[in-house]
Amino acid sequence: MVWLAQNDVNWSTQYQQGVSLTTNNIHLQWIVFEKLLVRNSGRKELRDMSLKGLRFRIVTVIILAGFSLSACTLISEKVLSTETARVTTTVIQELQPTATDVEQMATMELSTAEPTIQPGVATAVIFQKTLKDEGEDPKYTVEVNYPFIDGMEGFNQASRAIAERITAAFMENLATYPVTTDPNLMSYSSVSMDYTVLDNTPEVISVYFQISEYYSGAAHPLPFSSVLNYDVRNQKVLALSDLFQSDKDYLNLISAFVINELSGEEKFTFLEGALPEAKNYQNWNLTPDGLHITFDPYQIAPYAAGFISVDVPTDVLIGFANPDGVLAEN
């Protein structure tokens, strides 16, 4: 449909160029139209027409083209409008909370208004929920955001579990950290989490979480990652091994690609963090183009280097992919 619309635009441009020629250059006009019509129609008999017959036909074609152009323009506008609307409706919507829902737990949860799934649209509408808490002795704050999709309970349970795990681990660690009395250091602790949806299709939803913890008296926050890759059709959380054939050494394949990609980077100093071991490749996400691998600070480079990511294209992985898995379908 988009090709048809583009073809209409191209023909419209050619038509306007032809009719804009002056009467003083009428013979050049016939030649231009002859070439345009021959190229666009491909009809052999046009090449054999006499100049007199050609002029008569061209006048007729110009009149008909005026009507055709108007119709094509309307069709083009409708086609382009329809295509734009389709793309717009597939954009992931992450809405901010608009209502509160206090639960009987150590944290307070802020919830969005009732979310929905758009019928007939490829991607799910994703809302945001927040676990939020604060305390004075010791002083701390918790603000942990996580995604929620109405009607997709398996995904929601997995997403909520990550938020609760991060919060619980922070509260446990908080009890072991003494509150600093150094006036040059912050006297409160905090944990925050945000997320990015990297893939959202009828087959899979892939979410990357970035967490930051800070404990009173520390020199700097501790950032780290978590991921959620959810198989929509089979309603289960995916492991990296689910993407590949059981007899394929996929970790060695991924590791070799990653090390090769990072070999020229000066900040890549901790080779052991990229070796083909499962613990090194826990933070992975499916994307439309393949796998997005994330390495936390200190894993393959110093803290100052921050998060480092490498994209492994589907073309590199497809030979090892499970033919019935989401990597092959995505």
Description of the structure:
The protein is an alpha+beta fold and 330 residues long. The chain folds into two domains: 2-89, no CATH class; 94-329, Fervidobacterium nodosum Rt17-B1 like (Heat Shock Protein 90). The chain contains eight helices and twelve strands. It has helices at 2-19, 26-41, 44-47, 51-89, 153-174, 250-262, 314-317, 326-329; strands spanning 94-95, 99-101, 108-111, 126-136, 139-148, 189-200, 204-214, 222-231, 236-237, 284-287, 290-295, 308-313. Strands 1, 2, 3, 4, 5, 6, 7, 8 and 9 form a nine-stranded mixed beta sheet that branches. A three-stranded antiparallel beta sheet has the order 10-11-12. Helix 1 runs antiparallel to helix 2 (26-41) and helix 1 packs antiparallel against helix 4 (51-89). It is flat, with a radius of gyration of 30 Å.
Salient structural properties:
single chain; 330 residues; alpha+beta; Heat Shock Protein 90; 2 domains; nine-stranded mixed beta sheet; three-stranded antiparallel beta sheet; 8 helices; 12 strands; flat; disordered N terminus
Q: Tell me about the biggest sheet?
A: 9 strands, mixed
- The stretches of 5 or more residues where confidence is low (pLDDT under 50) are 1-121
Number of domains: 2
What is the CATH-assigned architecture of the largest domain? 2-Layer Sandwich
Taken in chain order, the helices and strands follow as HHHHEEEEEHEEEEHEEEHH
CATH topology of the largest domain: Heat Shock Protein 90
Fraction of residues in H or I helices: 25-40%
Report the strand count. Answer: 12
State the end-to-end distance.
24 Å
Average pLDDT, rounded to a whole number, is 73
Strand content: 15-25%
- Please tell me what the overall shape is: flat
